[in-house]
Amino acid sequence: MGSTEEEIKLPLIDLSGYINPQKPGDKERVIAEIKDACTNFGFFQLKGHGVPLSLQKGLLKSIDTLFALPDEEKMALSYLKNPSRRGYEKSGMSLREGDALPDSKEAYYIGREDPVTEHYGFYGPNVWPHQIPDDQFRDPVWEYYQATYHLGELIWEILLLALGHPLTIMEQFAKRPMVQMKMIRYPPLAATLPGQFGVGAHNDFGGVTVLLQEPGKHGLEVWIEDKQAWLPVQALEDVYVINCGDMIMNWSGKRFKSAKHRVINKADNEARLSCATFFHGDVNATNPLNPDDPDRSTVGQLLIKRFKSQFSLPKDAISKVAPEQLTA
Ligand SMILES: O=C(O)CCC(=O)C(=O)O
Ligand SMILES: [Fe+2]
Q1: Which of 148, 263, 275, 311 to mutate to test the pocket of ligand 1 (most atoms within 8 A of CB)?
Q2: For the residues 110-128, what does the mean pLDDT come to?
Q3: pLDDT value for 1
Q4: Is ipTM strictly over 0.85?
Q5: Least confident of 1-5, 68-72, 119-123
Q6: Is the distance from the beta carbon of residue 263 to the nearest atom of ligand 1 less than 6 Å?
Q7: Would you list the domain boundaries of the chain?
């Protein structure tokens, strides 16, 4: 487990030139910077993103409030009881194939708010903790979800432009995109087992990930293939980490990378909070970038495959999934 030389750093890109261009060429420059970052690393840091700091702070406070609930109350909100995989995941539930120990993190999932459960639970209503007043959890979390949903959409647009596609292509795969948000708390290092990770090494399976780290709570590390080393990523205030999942790598014909990453909370006595918003695509969408791609897997099939090999999935949900969804 080597560490990288000082000079390697993830690019820090300013999105304001794309959102609010001041002169000709501003948008194109941002597109080119993001293209380079995704080609070289599959990861970058982002400022000038337009998500208000107050929403980020409100979200972190809400996550803190949620995880402070007593264990029995959190377990009553378990995602294993919910057909759409929304709700609470306790520490020790995610064990990746090949890992010696499960993740130490606890998490809480929300997604699009659909009134009824459809498509084997890919779409459905969220689970909201009734014991926390709405203005201390549901409202700030939902407002934040929508803001990062839009940021994820914007990054997708830029990736498509960078690859030379028209923006109308979004219509082909993101009319009703699955956008899942995972709020996470990592226990202090002192409370984890020797060799246990907060989140073990993995690649994100899907589309664009918009990750907020609690400022100053370092712990995320990205695998740099060329150097064969883990690169620590600073947790900076008002700066997002953006990365591409495997689906983007495959849809782009490997032009964009999906990099392996992991989390070890470096603080001995303090928890670390983070929140990842994953912008995928419609459940039945296939590769919109290359109609000749022999792999016709749908977004839903890719998701199921990943949950089966890396993460737990409610047994009920697996049994309700049509067999063709599992053979991708
Ligand atoms: O908490 C973090 O910094 C990263 C989390 C992550 O990689 C994930 O949830 O996929
Ligand atoms: Fe990840």
Answers
A1: 263
A2: 92
A3: 45
A4: yes
A5: 1-5
A6: yes
A7: 12-281
Instruction: Find the angle CA(113)-CA(117)-CA(122) to the nearest 5 degrees.
Output: 75
Is there a contact between 89 and 109 (Cβ–Cβ < 8 Å)? yes
Mean pLDDT for the stretch of residues 245-258: 98
| CA-based torsion, 193, 210, 275, 273: positive or negative | positive
Q: Which of 143-152, 264-273, 284-293, 307-316 is least confident?
A: 307-316
Q: What is the pTM of this model?
A: 0.93
CATH number corresponding to 12-281: 2.60.120.330
Cα–Cα nearest to 84, from 48, 51, 117? 117
Indicate whether residue 222 lines ligand 1 (CB < 6 A): no
284: how many CB neighbours lie within 10 A of its CB? 13
pLDDT tens digit sequence for 155-198? 999 999 999 999 999 999 999 999 999 999 999 988 998 889 99
Q: Is the CB of 310 under 6 A from ligand 1?
A: no
If phi over 0 gives left and psi between -120 and 50 gives alpha, with beta otherwise, what is residue 228? left
